[in-house]
Design goal:
This protein is α/β, with parallel strands linked by helices. The chain has one domain: Rossmann fold (3-Layer(aba) Sandwich), CATH 3.40.50. Helix content is about 30%, strand content about 15%.
């Protein structure tokens, strides 16, 4: 078993209870801090596809288990990217060097941090890449809620013509809350300094079904990046946008096509070159007959798809870091 993986058999859910944030958490410059004294921090935010609906357990009644995490791991244990998570006794492993906080759940990264404990989202593939990339411990802060738009729910404060979205405020508040209490939440990381180095975004459905929201997406996303960087006091925070490409290359609906174009256009803006990346996700689409369901807006609940999206987001952020 690789030293970064440990067997895990019984998931535990720990409620945070009431945590009071006494002061704004500020990321301090690390200066000459040693690598072993730091923790690399990433924020993963969005709506239901960042929550993650990828089915973990293979169900023979669902296309013979195709598209589940278990099926992907078993069909090719040489598929080291997914097969690495499955132990020889059939249990799932967890990483010893990657931690995650997702709303009312937290712990070492393993399958089960999707919308429910029987699902995964992009965090699993993302964390696998980052855990391998860095010698330092990695902390993922996942902030995702289903059915939320950028135009209203995540609306950034600098966007003209509307109130700041409640879920924008939650992203900032909950990030600060986790970071201010990380020593209690993750005792293993106590004594280390936190270094925020990336923000991953996967969202779009609730804007692509509304024409006015769709039309404003590029402008709103631009404001969102500016405001997140300002409110987290990290003016150069690398940012990656994962395309909302749930129907793959066959997607022809005008609003869907225009929204994906808007997401790419954000990263193509001159001010964001080298610090914002767009990740095409259409190649990761798997058809319903290769998936646990035909729920197109949730990537047909295909775990391999979610895993590959997370991988691609992490790899894009690493390229930004290298620049």
């Amino acid at each position: 078993m690789p030293p970064t993986m440990q067997s895990f058999k019984s998931p535990s859910t720990r409620l945070l209870g009431n945590i009071v944030l006494g002061a704004l958490f500020v990321f301090q410059p690390l200066n000459a801090a040693k690598a072993e004294d730091t923790v690399k921090v990433f924020i993963l935010a969005g709506q239901s596809n960042m929550e993650g609906h990828g089915v973990i357990t293979a169900d023979p009644a669902r296309n013979e288990g195709k598209g589940s995490l278990e099926h992907a791991a078993r069909k090719d244990l040489g598929n080291a990217e997914i097969g690495q998570w499955l132990a020889s006794d059939g249990s799932w492993k967890e990483r010893s060097d990657v931690w995650i906080h997702y709303l009312n759940r937290h712990g070492k990264l393993r399958p089960g941090f999707g919308v429910n404990e029987d699902r995964i989202g992009p965090e699993l593939g993302f964390g696998a890449v980052m855990g391998t990339q860095y010698q330092e411990p990695v902390l993922l802060i996942k902030l995702a809620w289903g059915g939320k738009s950028l135009a209203k729910d995540f609306r950034p404060p600098s966007a003209v013509g509307g109130q700041t979205g409640d879920y924008y405020q939650l992203v900032i508040r909950d990030t600060q809350k986790v970071l201010a209490n990380f020593k209690t939440l993750f005792p293993e990381l106590s004594g280390k300094q936190l270094e925020l180095i990336g923000f991953g975004w996967h969202q779009g459905w609730n804007d692509r079904v509304n024409q006015s929201f769709n039309d404003a997406y590029q402008e709103n996303m631009t404001h969102f990046i500016h405001d997140i960087r300002r409110d987290l006091q990290h003016p150069s925070l690398p940012f990656v946008i994962a395309e909302t490409g749930m129907s793959g290359y066959e997607e022809k609906h005008p609003r869907a096509v225009s929204l994906m174009a808007a997401q790419k256009a954000v990263a193509d803006q001159e001010e964001f070159k080298g610090n914002v990346a767009f990740v095409e996700t259409k190649p990761f689409y798997r058809s319903a007959d290769q998936s646990p369901s035909g729920q197109a807006y949730h990537w047909n609940t295909n775990a391999e798809t979610y895993y590959l999206i997370g991988q691609a987001m992490a790899e894009a952020l690493n390229k930004l870091q290298s620049k």
